[in-house]
Design goal:
By secondary structure, the protein is α/β, with parallel strands linked by helices. Helix content is about 40%, strand content about 15%. Helix 4 crosses helix 5 and helix 8 runs parallel beside helix 9. The two termini are about 25 Å apart.
């Protein structure tokens, strides 16, 4: 089943898709067309706590809907994630209304304690300016208030912003028991050297980086370093934002993808990323519950081995750039 067919199957489910699956989707599950195994879980290296390998991000389309007056679809997305085995929700104050809207929805649904909240802090000026400590602390307190939690699961310094100041604050909060995991993020290859330097010199629980079947830069140094240092990895942009969708538009998933239980392009892309042993959780963004279910399928069943991963890379490399 490719993504286009998936959409046809689930479109009629409407806004209630998160809690009541469309009959044809249930039929597909019964016929084994979608992975039905338990979600793969990976340990967070610093503690051994296990989390589902696929979660939900809140940039891109999620953030766009969060800015609208009607964000009911996001209620279904969050409910779908929890109902179908996901827990990790990655967000940031920089993603517009995503934090506040997600917190409101989770509290209305009564699932705020079932979500692994991973947010960020960054009040540093553009171009690497300094961060005002009071402003950074106020931003963090807003996150606590939005989610209505006493202890935050994870906070990372967004885009390597003023590491001494902002990571210093996160260390204090972790010492106080208000934050369980701390880290840093970067989705810029140009700053991977800076990211690696912090990884080598600071006691991090997590990093957040971009990685995809056609974006392998992080696998050269960053992911192996995370393994060596015992740092968990959250993966962003596993679909190359929209790049991979543009390259595969109108194409069916290759038949050989079924060998590692990939029945849609989303699962193809996510399983490639999940196959790297350094990856703790992948957080693709979506505002549609049927895409959420599809994405979670990428964390079930078998993952591609090294030979299959090479085949995936080679296949995608043959596709024209949009």
């Amino acid at each position: 089943m490719n993504r286009r067919e998936w959409l046809k199957v689930t479109a009629a489910a409407g806004a209630g898709a998160a809690l009541t699956l469309h009959p044809r989707l249930l039929e597909a599950l019964d016929r084994g067309m979608l992975p039905t195994d338990e979600m793969i879980q990976r340990p967070i290296p610093s503690t051994g706590e296990r989390v589902p390998i696929v979660g939900l991000g809140s940039s891109a389309t999620f953030a766009s809907v969060a800015r609208s007056e009607d964000y009911s679809a996001l209620r279904d997305v969050l409910g779908t994630m929890i109902e179908h085995g996901g827990t990790v929700f990655d967000t940031a104050p920089g993603y517009g209304a995503s934090e506040e809207v997600a917190g409101t929805i989770a509290n209305e649904l009564g699932i705020q304690d079932q979500i692994f909240w991973a947010t960020k802090v960054n009040v540093a000026g553009r171009g690497g300016g300094s961060a005002d400590p009071d402003e950074a602390r106020a931003q963090i307190e807003d996150s606590f208030r939005y989610f209505n939690v006493d202890v935050m699961d994870a906070i990372q310094v967004h885009n390597l912003g003023d590491i001494p100041t902002q990571l210093g604050i996160l260390k204090e909060l972790k010492e106080e028991g208000r934050v369980r995991y701390i880290g840093i993020t970067s989705t810029s290859e140009a700053r991977y050297d800076d990211l690696a330097a912090v990884m080598r010199n600071e006691p991090l629980d997590f990093i957040g980086v971009d990685y995809a079947v056609d974006n392998l830069s992080a696998a050269e140094t960053i992911l192996p370093l995370a393994q060596d240092r015992g740092i968990g990895v959250l993966i962003y942009a596993p679909f190359g934002r929209t790049r991979l969708w543009n390259r595969t538009e109108g194409r069916d998933v290759p038949e050989w993808a079924a060998e590692f239980d990939a029945t849609s392009w989303a699962q193809f892309f996510l399983k490639f990323v999940a196959a790297h042993p350094a990856v703790t959780c992948i957080t693709p963004a979506t505002s549609r519950p049927h895409h959420m279910i599809d994405n979670l399928g990428g964390g079930r069943g078998r993952l591609p081995d090294e030979a299959e991963q090479r085949r995936m890379i080679e296949y995608v490399d043959t596709l024209p750039m949009a």
